[in-house]
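Lab notebook page, bench 4
Experiment: in silico fold of construct C2
Operator: M.H.
Input chain length: 398 residues
Purpose: comparison with the prior construct
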Amino acid sequence: MRLEGVQFVGHSDLDGRPEGLQVVGTGDRVFIAHLFSGGFTEVSLTDPRRPRVLSFTAAPPNSWSVHLQVQGDLLLVSNGPDMWAAPIGFDPGRSLFESVSGYAAGVRIYDVSKPGHPREIGFADVGGQGVHRIWFEGSDLAFVSAFPDGFDEGILLVLDLSDPTEPFEVDRYWIPGMGPNEEALRTWPDEFKVSLHHPIVRDGFVYGAWRDGGITVQPVATSGALGSATRLVWPGPDGLGSAAHTSLPLPEMGLVAVAEEGIESAGEPQRRSVSMIDVHDPSDPRRIGTLPSPEVSPVAGARFGPHNLYEYRAGAWMDGSIVFSAHQGAGLLIYRVAADGEATEVGRFEADPPSTLLDPRPGRVAVRQTNDVFVTADGLMAVVDANGGLDILQLDLR
């Protein structure tokens, strides 16, 4: 185990479901979306030295719930076809989605006011292939990356949750060329994947990460109506696309950190970075550099590079000069970022290799694959891994 700028506090194997893809928190609880176990787990951090599982909620049949959002007493969970229902190799492709039937496609809404007893109160059915990921910070609006009917890739939907038992769509946006019968408008190579991974909203702007389609910045009204989008695209390594996974505005900094997701190409890990974007003028975003890359080598059979970044949210950590990067291959990396975008690594957590491997895909290896982190206002961190369970850390940047 490697600890720099952090203290180890506690660990949980999540009752035998150690693969976490996303973690979000409210009060003294965190909620963890599982990659292969088909549901989500609620954990109490009342004693962070001994994280305690309060509940597990299974996804609907043939469905997954790999992403979620919680604020106050409302929990939102994504539903779509379970793409891990069978061993699928490194690059699943669209054919797997098409082979799954009878799945839920939308956003499932829970009341989580009673610890240990999530209660479903609503469902936003978006149709098609459902929902990948959600942004929700407690307002009447949720921002969703969805695959509705007519779209093979993810687009942006805005949902009104003023009555969470009866959610409805307010607006939608996609990059020209993604829509039905818009092939002539495409400006990207056929091998590029242009699809909204997810949006993040800050100070009246939606920041979208569109994988090889780069990022968009667009204003949004309090009603949920979307304005015109400005788009920034940059090349990835070795002729690949930008692979934008998370487009994270840093509070009070005029900067956006973009995690470029490291996946596999022909079975081999890709080297990816976190790009820094200047958005002082939202109509003219500019890529100004990258965060320092860790001196770690990729391992065949495992992903490598950034996955998600801690996404600042009300009631939790909000200091935008500190960036937390969940790196598939190097663990949790913590950076201090200056006003000009220059950054220095100030903390790192690398856990010991996992003892289990739940990934059903052939050729995978039992190594740490850090996926996400949630940070409380006082620097308590919940870190999830594709194999290694939940680790609790305390930020200590003395």
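Observations: Confidence is low (pLDDT under 50) at residues 87-94. The longest strand covers residues 194-202.
Next step: discuss at group meeting.
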